[in-house]
Amino acid sequence: MEGAGGAMESMETILKHYGFTSVDEENRAELSRTLLPVSDQLADDFYDFLMEDSYTAAFFRTEEAIAKRKETIKTWFRELFTADYDHRHLMRFRRIGQVHVRIGLKGHYVNSSMNFIRTFCLRQLEGEITDPVQRQKLIETLDKILDISLDVMTSSYREAELKKVFLSHRLEFWLVRWSERVLHGLNLLLMLGLVILAAGVAVLLASDILYALRETLDTGLIKALGSLLILWMMIELLHTQVEYLRGGRFHVQVFVELALVAFIRKLFIAAIDEKEAITFALLIGGLLVLGVIFYLIAKAEPRPSR
């Protein structure tokens, strides 16, 4: 029974939500007269119940822990039927839940323990209260009492879970935020690298043109053509990177085009240097493979628009 802000409701509000009335308060007094005399039996039976499961048994490795647990269950049981249902009572029950969270007890075992206690109480009422109408009224009040206690105790589990979600959400938010900043910085660094490379290719193109004019025209033109293809692809890469930084799609097709242009330039240079036939065969084979890859990607991926 938590508010929108995650804080526990007041005891008065909780009692109202569970429909706990003055009649239930009278029934609580009757329940105390019937059930409190068997508190010792409850403590012993409850201990046996806990020892049946290896998980809960692990919390009671010493005689001191066993004796303490029996006393705490009797104190809790007595306060169910005798303590004033006020803010102090609410805080006591909340501290019980906080202890369970702190020692690492799973919430499932809190619920199953409450079911055991409810069953124990119902058995006692069936044996002690002969009037079925009165017994049913007492059972209804007992259900409210145990449900309220369980609600308050398990609120600590809900609060612990909310804290985990809150902390993980904040951690996730900051990780994503800083990752985005780092990624943006790397993209800007990539952009700068592409600009420098494009400038270098432009210088290479100018060098090839000068070579064609000063030395061998045909060789220089072929080299200049290869450099021009590379420069064209650098411009395409820059355009793709700019579009990506603006929120556009990442296009693999452009990188395959760059590889194709690089192979074509290699063929030009190999023709000038008169490489062996096997070199030409490998270059042409690689060019064909890249051509097939480019064709498949072009069918699946739309061409980036300018």
The whole-angstrom Rg is 40 Å
Q: What fold name goes in the CATH topology slot of the largest domain?
A: Globin-like
The profile of the biggest β sheet is:
none
Q: What's the number of structural domains?
A: 2
Distance between the termini: 58 Å
Provide an overview of this structure.
It is a single chain. With 306 residues, this protein is mainly alpha-helical. It folds into two domains: 11-170, Globins (Globin-like, Orthogonal Bundle); 173-300, no CATH class. Helices cover 83% and strands 0% of the residues. The chain has helices at 11-17, 22-35, 39-51, 54-57, 63-82, 87-103, 107-128, 132-214, 217-245, 252-273, 277-300. 15% of the residues are buried. Residues 1-6 have low confidence and may be disordered.
In short:
This protein has helices at residues 11-17, 22-35, 39-51, 54-57, 63-82, 87-103, 107-128, 132-214, 217-245, 252-273, 277-300. It folds into two domains: 11-170, Globin-like (Orthogonal Bundle), CATH 1.10.490; 173-300, no CATH class.
Please give the structural blueprint.
Layout: H1 11-17, H2 22-35, H3 39-51, H4 54-57, H5 63-82, H6 87-103, H7 107-128, H8 132-214, H9 217-245, H10 252-273, H11 277-300
Helix pairs in contact: 2-5, 2-8, 3-5, 3-7, 6-8, 7-8, 8-9, 9-10, 10-11
